[in-house]
Amino acid sequence: MATTADTATRPGVTTGRRRMADRDGVLAWAFLVPSILYIVALIGVPFVLAIAFAFSDVSAGDPSFDWVGLRNFEAVLDDPVFWRSLRNTFLFTVVSMVLIVLLGKVLANILVADFRGKWVVRFLVLLPWTTPVALSSISWLWLLDSIYSPIDWVLRQFGALGPAENVYWLGRPDLAMGSLIAVHVWRLVPLAAVIMMAGLMSIPKDIDEAARVDGAGYWRRMFEITVPLVLPVAAIAALFGAIFTFTDMAVVRVLTRGGPNDATQVLASWAFYRGIDGGDVAQGAVIALFLFPLLLAAAVLILRAVRRIEVR
């Protein structure tokens, strides 16, 4: 076995390693190739298969590939549940992201302040994000139970509900959608807060101190210094959150399974129920493909925001 001393006495080997380490082009491809293979295997191949399945009659019972043209697209566009899922996807994403950005900014301002026990508070704030989504959703399933809900018990103690009255959080369409949005916001606010906290901590303190010397108050410093400097970071947090929201169906799956009467279906969950649970792989692929232009637009906006930060 070659030792360090042996290697040191072999100048040819050492020189060869140095030449390899200095060749930026070779090292760049050595680091890029595994990532490219990973993306092609886990994203590119399933995407091509989804496009192929969308023009076929592949199902769970008959995996043979037969070309059917646009028949699956016509069937999906004639389905009222698809349009309800599309509307719910936009409603779910827009309302969630507005609340996540606002609450994340407020929470980030609190977390960057100096107070006793700050690290404990930061740890507790991060818990919803670090908890597995299935586990946290099951906890919320119990909290929103139609009979044994602790939230209903608290409301009864304050007189907001009668002694035998219950709020069917997941049994009424409006309340069910509101509950899904509340749980999703609860999950993603810590991530947005951490991203914005990094943006707040990157602002040079001398800018804030100079504004204080000039007599700028809290709100003037907030809207003329803090918000403009944090805005690119907040945009990235919002767009990442939008992508998570567009593609996430875990909360819907655990809490409502798309009910009641498909009132809380989103595109991701409807594609799953249609393609996997229902066995109609072709129509499930068509529904999933409608997510692509939305995610592509979000990816372009993220890249533009990153480029704007790099220019600054």
TrEMBL record:
<dbReference type="Pfam" id="PF00528">
    <property type="entry name" value="BPD_transp_1"/>
</dbReference>
<feature type="transmembrane region" description="Helical">
    <location>
        <begin position="90"/>
        <end position="112"/>
    </location>
</feature>
<keyword id="KW-0472">Membrane</keyword>
<feature type="transmembrane region" description="Helical">
    <location>
        <begin position="222"/>
        <end position="246"/>
    </location>
</feature>
<feature type="transmembrane region" description="Helical">
    <location>
        <begin position="175"/>
        <end position="201"/>
    </location>
</feature>
<dbReference type="GO" id="GO:0055085">
    <property type="term" value="P:transmembrane transport"/>
</dbReference>
<keyword id="KW-1133">Transmembrane helix</keyword>
<feature type="domain" description="ABC transmembrane type-1">
    <location>
        <begin position="86"/>
        <end position="304"/>
    </location>
</feature>
<feature type="transmembrane region" description="Helical">
    <location>
        <begin position="281"/>
        <end position="303"/>
    </location>
</feature>
<dbReference type="InterPro" id="IPR035906">
    <property type="entry name" value="MetI-like_sf"/>
</dbReference>
<dbReference type="InterPro" id="IPR000515">
    <property type="entry name" value="MetI-like"/>
</dbReference>
<feature type="transmembrane region" description="Helical">
    <location>
        <begin position="119"/>
        <end position="143"/>
    </location>
</feature>
<feature type="transmembrane region" description="Helical">
    <location>
        <begin position="26"/>
        <end position="55"/>
    </location>
</feature>
<comment type="similarity">
    <text>Belongs to the binding-protein-dependent transport system permease family.</text>
</comment>
<dbReference type="GO" id="GO:0005886">
    <property type="term" value="C:plasma membrane"/>
</dbReference>
<keyword id="KW-0812">Transmembrane</keyword>
<keyword id="KW-1003">Cell membrane</keyword>
<protein>
    <submittedName>
        <fullName>Carbohydrate ABC transporter membrane protein 1 (CUT1 family)</fullName>
    </submittedName>
</protein>
<keyword id="KW-0813">Transport</keyword>
